[in-house]
Structures are given as C-alpha cells and as structure tokens.
C-alpha cells in the first residue's frame, strides 16, 4: 500500500494530500495545468523538498536512501531525456517483448541514435526504461501526450498488464478524462485548494 | 643582463594601444577589458617588484606565509569572478581557495624541501616565484573546471533529473559532466606541456636564459616547474570539481539549482 500523509509542497496549489492506494490500483489525476500535479508526483518520488510523509508498506520515504526509494517508486516525466548515444545503450538487459508490445521494432529502434527518435518513440522508450526497473509504484506524467490513438491503446494495455501482474501501484497524471475513466480504479480531480476523489 | 628602462616598457605599450584602437574600429567591445587588464597587470607587477625587493631581503616564514595568503585569496577572488553560476554565499570562493591553497602549498613545500633542498625551504627568492607559478596555473584549471561543471549542470538539468527519477545516484547522474569538466580544466596545462620547447619557450626558462643562466640548467628547472604545475593544476581541478559537485545535491539526493545565484 502507498500512503500519503499531509504531503505538501509550495507549488501544489490544491493543498496537502492524504491518500491510501492499494497494491495493483491505478489512480488517475486530472486538473488544469499549473496546479502542481507533476509536482505531486515529484514529491512522491522525493525529487523536490516537501512536508508530510510517504509510506510504501511499512517503509517511510526518509528511512532509505533516496536513490533506493526511486528504484521502487519511479517517475516517468512528461519530457523523458536520454543521456546515452543510442537506445540500446540505456538498457542493461533488453526485454524485446516490451518494445513489441508498444509497437516498436527492436531491431530498428535499439540501434537508433536517441537524438533521431521522434517524440512518440521517446515517450514509449522512456516508459520501457522505467518499467524495466520493476518499480512497485509507477508515477506517470502525461505518458500519452505525444502519441496517436493506436499507441495510446498500446500504452494503456501495457500499464494495465503491469499493474495487475506485478501488483504495482500506478498514479497517472493526464488531461484525457475519457482515457483515465477507462483504465483507472480511482480518479481524482484537482482544483485550487481541492483534491477530490471521484467515484467511477 | 641587459636592464630595461621604463622608456622601453612605454614603447612596447604602444602595441597594446594599437590593439585597443583596432578593437574600437572593429567594434569588438574588448577595449575596456583590455585596458583594465593591462592597467591591473602593470600596477600589480610594479607593486610586486617593490614588495619582493623587501621580502627577498628577509628570510622569514611569517613574511612568506603572509605573502602566500594574499596570493591565494587574490586567486580565489579571481576564480569567483570568472564563474557564470556561483553558489549563494561564499561557498564557491571557499571551495576554490581551499583547494588551490592546499594543493599549491603542499607541492611547493615538497619541491623546496625534498627536490631543490634549499635551506630554509621558505627562502623567498625560491618559494614565492614557485608558489606563484603553481597558483596561477591551478587557478586557471580550477576556474575552467568549476565553471564548466556548474554551466553543464544548469543546462542539463532535465537530463540529470530524469536519471535521478530512475534511481541513479547523483554521482552516476553527473559522472560524464564531472569527467568533461575535469578534462576541460586540465586542457590548458596539457597543451602547454605538449608544445613546450617546440612552439613556445616557457616564461621562466626564457627569463633565466635572458638573465644569463646556462640553457641546460634553465631547461632542467623548466621541466621541474612544468611537472609541478601540471600536477598541482590537475589535483586542484579534480578536487575542486568533486567538492563543488557534491553541493548541487541535498542529503536526499535532489538537484538543488536554487542554491546558485
């Protein structure tokens, strides 16, 4: 279980967040831009200073090294930046199945220079990289922003499969309410000074 | 030795004046910096000449240490002023000055005590020029290395944060940046060593030869100095870049660029 206790940061305009999310659940967060939804994901991943506490099971965020925490609670940013020369260079063990599931031809894409990747390819490879860590909590910041409908479906399918097989918790920040209603177990609407659960 | 008059110096200054005029005509905007740097160089060296005349006549460790302290602090201020991004407060100054001061002092002591064997080791005629050469070159290395480090971290913020998000440690997330920063700080001294004797006649050796020393003896001193400068500059750059890199992250391994000004 992921538990957020009075989690707050100066850029979260909806205020402190208290929430409990069960294993295997997918939670969607909707809301206008600039309210601090991405900031919330960063505070859960412990990437920015914040108040309040985050627990994963019995483990409190500050009780382990931040880099160890982020291997368990990984964030896929809206703009995934590559640091090596080719796609292949970013992976220690390559799971070609993941590439195929997301509509990417491993033979072609693995040797491709990262600077030549399209924004949609970058987004899907970023997702594969994050999933390859086998995190217990997957934080997704607009993971389908640059994708066409076919690829959106592929991403949804992969996330549903990952959450159910790995019993992982997924928090998905997005703007497509139809998509989030389709795949999420819980939906949250964020507004100024309000962070409200919506029953599906 | 042929002594130079102030008239000789004034004559060569015309060349600098011509450079300034060209800068104005070509609208390079470098004339102000050129004028300030020339004025500083002439004033500083003339004052140093007067001070050294007095200092050389007293073999006293306190006078030596006072002189070295002034040199180290001046070099620290210079490094600080050359940084595009500085830490808030005095941290950039502390890191650069302490690293530069400690590496230069340790190597100066080692050379004077064990290699040259001059007694006492702080004899100013040897100790001050030696320390000065090491400080000057280490200052350049540290200045370039630290500037490259902070500039690269600021411009590659998203890349570093993406790596942190995936569970990389700060050390892993900036290892390439650190490597490149250290290398860039070491390039000037590597270049100087590569062309020494082939393209350039290093300053100290030229000075000794002009003052009448046998060329082979001057060369031996120059090799010693080059080795010391290269070591000191490299150690200083490595240590300062490493220490500086630690301060971009907090205890929870978060990138904290708001610590810069």
Descriptive account of the structure:
The complex is a heterodimer of chains A (200) and B (261). Chain A has helices at 37-44, 66-72, 96-101, 106-109, 119-132, 149-166, 177-183, and strands at residues 2-8, 17-21, 26-31, 51-56, 59-60, 73-76, 137-141, 169-173, 186-191, 194-198. Chain A is an alpha/beta fold and 200 residues long. In chain A, strands 6-7-8-3-9-10 form a 6-stranded mixed β-sheet, with helices on both faces. In chain A, strands 2-1-4-5 form a 4-stranded antiparallel β-sheet, covered by helices on one side. Chain A is globular, with a radius of gyration of 16 Å. With 261 residues, chain B is mostly helical. Chain B is 76% helix and 0% strand. In chain B, helix 3 (61-81) runs parallel beside helix 5 (124-155). Chain B is globular. At the A-B interface, helix 2, strand 6 and helix 5 of A face helix 6 of B.
Helix amount of chain A = 25-40%
Strand content of chain A: 25-35%
What oligomeric state do these chains adopt?
Answer: heterodimer
Q: Helix/strand-derived class of chain A?
A: alpha/beta
Radius of gyration of chain A: 16 Å
- Give the helix/strand class of chain B: mainly alpha
* Coarse shape of chain B: globular
Instruction: Report the biggest beta sheet of chain A as strand number plus sense, adding barrel if it closes.
Output: 6 strands, mixed
- Mean pLDDT of chain A equals 94
**Biggest chain-to-chain interface with counts:** A-B, 25 and 16 residues
* Sheet having the most strands of chain B: none
Number of distinct helices of chain B: 10
Helix content of chain B: over 70%
